Automatic annotation (TrEMBL):
Keywords, alphabetical: Isomerase, Rotamase, Signal
Family indicated by similarity: Belongs to the cyclophilin-type PPIase family.
Protein's UniProt name: Peptidyl-prolyl cis-trans isomerase
Role description: PPIases accelerate the folding of proteins. It catalyzes the cis-trans isomerization of proline imidic peptide bonds in oligopeptides.
Residues spanning the signal sequence: 1-18
PANTHER family: PEPTIDYL-PROLYL CIS-TRANS ISOMERASE CYP21-3, MITOCHONDRIAL (PTHR47269:SF3), PEPTIDYL-PROLYL CIS-TRANS ISOMERASE CYP21-4 (PTHR47269)
Transmembrane segments: none
Taxonomic placement: Eukaryota, Viridiplantae, Streptophyta, Embryophyta, Tracheophyta
Record-linked InterPro entries: Cyclophilin-like_dom_sf (IPR029000), Cyclophilin-type_PPIase_dom (IPR002130)
Amino acid sequence: MSSLIVVLTLFFLYATYRHWSQRSRFQIENKQSVLEGDNSFMDPKKSDLPGYAILETAKGSITVELFKDSSPEVVDQFLDLCQRGHFDGMLFRHVIKHYVIQAGDSDKLGAAEDWTLKGKHYSQLDTSLKHEAFMLGTSKAKHDKRGFELFITTAPIPDLNEKLIVFGKVVKGEDVVQVTSKLQFLSM
């Protein structure tokens, strides 16, 4: 009888943990990075990751479609960082007009690990989508393990195809990206 109680208690704890861990993936924890679902998580045959993210900047909102089918690990980690508030107040600190805007805080030691290569062989990452205008990407090879780099291209840039992993595309707010590309720094 006591072993049955122990088993039921363990089952209850496990079920509660699964429920809360799944719920926390979709729960909005801050107003700086708001995640929206696209109802694909309602279909158990599809990935349970939200299909869109909204980046709130001082100049307006940027809505990005996340490529969860082609880069599920990258999208999952990006969403996890959003929920933990990693991008709150982060600056687009590297802005090159007609090229790219880059956000990232390499001064936060341990803020994010090199998750783009964790558990993956480098050649498996070479299938990344190409860098057209308004693509969202991150570095393929971060060796310093000090922070997360986020790139949004403002023009087609074939030079970045082998250097960055594309995991999203701006679908709304292209004007905000263009305005940002003309500024020196902009806070998210």
